[in-house]
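ok here's Phage tail tape measure protein:
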Amino acid sequence: MAGNLGELRATLVADANSIKQELRAVKQEFSGLGDQGTKTASDVKKMESSFNSIGDRCIQ
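and the structure:
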């Protein structure tokens, strides 16, 4: 059972890290689009913060 939990944790952490990288890339793209891009980048930053919180909980 511990092995399965370890594998699940590793998968969740890898997925969370992948999502964080994608969000950073999207945020960079939106930041160059003017006012609406700035607002969207801010919204993406909030999502990134939420995913970071989820990822941190998985790591503990």
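+1. DSSP finds two helices and no strands in the chain.
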